[in-house]
């Protein structure tokens, strides 16, 4: 079993290091090729993923058929369609791979059993999701208070390695601009 999840858990809740090894058997390793849709809008969701390697995109398709990227998941990040995983009848978002991707997957039934068997994992997931929620709020504030040009600059300067990992059309949809607008912003950024 990959050591990444072990290290991630121990980093957030070091007091339980001796117990962490016992939780790893709840997970299964899976691999997905690039451009694989892991979760479809409208589907039932019963899996939660920890990214070992690769990059995933969370997006929805609007009424005109345009993909709108709202989030990414890279190494050591958790991802699922949360509302559907928690009980909504169907997913409102798609999750697809942008690269060949390896994950550790846990099914909902095993996830619930994990939390019952090892209550400290509730503390771990609480910390994971509090950090993710805080980052989401910061993104929303940044997105709402700066121009698209400034948001592009912010993202390119704070996450330059991430920007290199996905196609321009994905980055443009994340910012909420056209490919032509992204080309102009990219040219201005590089000069």
Automatic annotation (TrEMBL):
CDD domains: CAP_ED. Coiled coil: none annotated. SUPFAM superfamilies: cAMP-binding domain-like. Residues 17-115 form the Cyclic nucleotide-binding domain. InterPro entries: cNMP-bd_dom, cNMP-bd_dom_sf, RmlC-like_jellyroll. This is Cyclic nucleotide-binding domain-containing protein.
